[in-house]
C-alpha cells in the first residue's frame, strides 16, 4: 500500500515547483535500521568515492547501479516511492541508480549548483523524464549542509554544465540570474522525511560545518519510454519489481542481526 496520497495538489506542486516534500515517510525503526546498516557498510567502504568541491572541501558518495537483497534496495523498490514516481512521471519507471551521500561532520564538502539532467543528458537519456527521491538518513539542517533548491527552476530547461573541482556544476551565469528571479528553499528534513524532485531542478548543498553527520539515500528513476539510446554509465531499461514497504524492516532486521 502506498503511504503517499498522490493528489492533484501534489501533482500541481511537482509540475509548478519541481519538487515536493513528504514529512516522515519512513518511521523511526526503518531509519534506525538503514542508518545502522549504512554506517557499517559504507564507513570504511573502499568503493566510496570522494568529490572535491570548489571551496576546498570534499563530499563522499557510494553509487550503485544494481539492486540486491539488501535494505537500500528495499527502499528503492518500495511501493510508496515507486508508485509515486510513476504518478508524477506518467509512465512505468525503472531503477536508474541509487547512492548514499556521506556528508561527515566538519569535513563534508559542498555540492555545486547543478541539475541532475545536466549529467544524465550525456548518458543518452533523450528527455528529462527522470526524477529522484532523497530520503534523510540523518537530520538535515542549514548547519550540516541540507539540500537547497531553486523553486520552479526545472522550467528553465537544461543548463550547460562545467567542471568545478571534481564536480560538474551548472553555468553560474545562468544560475545567478535564476537566483534573482526564483525562491531559494533550504530543505531541512527530519530522518525519514523525503523530497521528490525533477531532474532539471537546480539544487546544491553547502559544506557541513556542524558536529553532526548528514547522510542521505537518493533513489533515482527513469521512465521506460525514455530508455537511453546507447549504453552509458547507468543502466538501460529493465523491469523493476516493486516490493511492499514492509520488506524494509524484514530485510533490515535480518541484516542488522548479522553485523
Automatic annotation (TrEMBL):
GO MF annotations in UniProt: 2-oxoglutarate-dependent dioxygenase activity; iron ion binding
UniProt key word S-adenosyl-L-methionine: no
InterPro entries linked: Phytyl_CoA_dOase-like
Keywords: Dioxygenase, Oxidoreductase
Keyword Oxidoreductase: yes
Pfam families (UniProt xref): PhyH
Name of the protein described by the UniProt record: Phytanoyl-CoA dioxygenase family protein
Organism whose genome encodes this protein: Telmatocola sphagniphila
Taxonomic lineage from the root: Bacteria, Pseudomonadati, Planctomycetota, Planctomycetia, Gemmatales
